Amino acid sequence: MLELETISHWFESSGATEPGQRVLNNISLTLHQGESLALMGNSGSGKSTLLQIAAGLERPQMGQVKLTGELLYQLADKRLSALRREKIGFVFQQFNLLPGLTVVDNILFQSRLSKRAVDQQWLNHLMAELSIEELKHRLPEQLSGGQQQRVAIARAIAHKPCIVFADEPTGNLNDSLSHSVMALLIHLVQEANSSLLMVTHSAAMADYADSVLKLQQSQLIAAATA
Ligand SMILES: Nc1ncnc2c1ncn2[C@@H]1O[C@H](COP(=O)(O)OP(=O)(O)OP(=O)(O)O)[C@@H](O)[C@H]1O
What we know:
- The chain is α/β, with parallel strands linked by helices.
- About 35% of the residues lie in helices and about 25% in strands.
- The chain has a single domain (about 1-220), classed as Rossmann fold (3-Layer(aba) Sandwich).
- It has helices spanning about 45-55, 75-85, 105-115, 120-130, 145-155, 175-190, 205, and strands spanning about 1-10, 25-30, 35-40, 60-65, 70, 90, 165, 195-200, 210-215, 220.
- β9 and β10 form a beta hairpin.
């Protein structure tokens, strides 16, 4: 479903033009439909870079990314944007809700952009599971952090994407909220039969995933917490 093939990456903007200064070195990874994977590693080890590359947001210097059989970086920009809207959901640490849109309009934003019909039953189910029905006409600024992240999860899953990419999804939440939000994310990703690739610093959060890998010295290794 998601295949990373021999990905190497370095940032020329940081002056790193030599292979020896690679952030990512020859990384391969396969994630099947319905699987969840947590990516751990020290600060600066390249986790977010790998997530961005896997999500079609940052072209790797070397290697290929294949999502449902399509080579992302061989697609024209327009097709790549359409594929991201249709097949991918994103959850970020900073929630990234659109401030001028209500909760329900935030959730439906991606489906409307790709002109896809909304599955009203699924939407109602998501809002009920995430306990955000009562909040649906509010603006993001009228929500707590935990509520905003629950809305962001609904937005990421509303169109039943093939895969959800989550970058530190509980990074701005306290411990107990982190557990409840992570449990909901995992549960709803499973219900949607989506895959999940998640970056986290927290071993406790990583434990929710089917498997855990660690980025170390530009390579992926099995994580001790797995
Ligand atoms: N646009 C960029 N230009 C130059 N260097 C970059 C750029 N983005 C990231 N880097 C560098 O690449 C390395 C990996 O960054 P990345 O954000 O992927 O790490 P991370 O593991 O996600 O870190 P953290 O856990 O602190 O978020 C870091 O050394 C960072 O400074």
